[in-house]
Amino acid sequence: MTHDVIVIGGSYAGMAAALQLLRARRKVLVIDAGKRRNRFADASHGFLGQDGVNPGEIARKAREQLSAYPTLSWVEGIAKQAEGEKNAFAVTTADGARHDARRLLFATGVSDALPEVEGLGERWGRSVFHCPYCHGYELDQGRIGCIATGPMSLHQAQLLPEWGEVTLFLNGSFAPDEAQRADLAARGVAIEETPVARLEGAADVRLTDGRLLQFAGLFTASRVSPSSPVAEQLGCALEETPFGLQIQTDAMKETTVFGAFACGDAARIPHSVSLAVGDGAWAGAQLHRSLVF
């Protein structure tokens, strides 16, 4: 069977794209590995109509709604290889099965490379975050720590005072100049130059000099890259962003390989559930147009 579109990645962006195609009665296969980026978080925020809802519940309900369309097929597995060209693509999954389609959509999401701070990984998405719009309000204007990963962390520290009293931990990642220090001071941001030894408790920072500083929550900037190599293996170009690598697309969400599209966190910045859904909906509509015209 040749599908109209194979969607690699069945999270928010992938399902939003699939919905547009299914409503046009197109045959869609979703291949999903079941590892949403926000699977560590208890609640999703900033998504209109779903504010505060468990992200897993949002995904479950979305898949349930897609399943009502008879032209949907769903494979739980890992896409290992994509090959071919427009109107003649093939995707092979980890179990060796081959699936054919006229178009491809990469909605693989991204993987986060976190700062090498002991205890940070276990708290990621629970008390250590990257997006204040998603998690800042719940900190109730308490003390916030920002663990720098490079010069771009300056912008994160400048924004965070909207949500609480901020301490910027340079952690040897960069040295603000005098003008930047003055700007941070004017915003009420304290600068801590002593390196971070580890995280303790819910969101406590142990410094290398032994001090323990307590916070309502912590923020840091991960470096991202597409969570699957299949788009790059197919020949899709990647591009560098302030957040890391993403799949390069044009305004219609088509990659540098004709007939292959990409959306969501893997193909746009910045990242959030609501932005991923919007990007997926646009990509789905453009995929449909590419099948028609």
Automatic annotation (TrEMBL):
GO terms for molecular function: oxidoreductase activity. Keywords: Flavoprotein, Oxidoreductase. It comes from the Bacteria. Residues 3-280 form the FAD/NAD(P)-binding domain. InterPro entries: FAD/NAD-bd_sf, FAD/NAD-binding_dom, Ferredoxin-NADP_redctase_2. This is Thioredoxin reductase. The lineage of its organism: Bacteria, Pseudomonadati, Pseudomonadota, Alphaproteobacteria, Hyphomicrobiales.
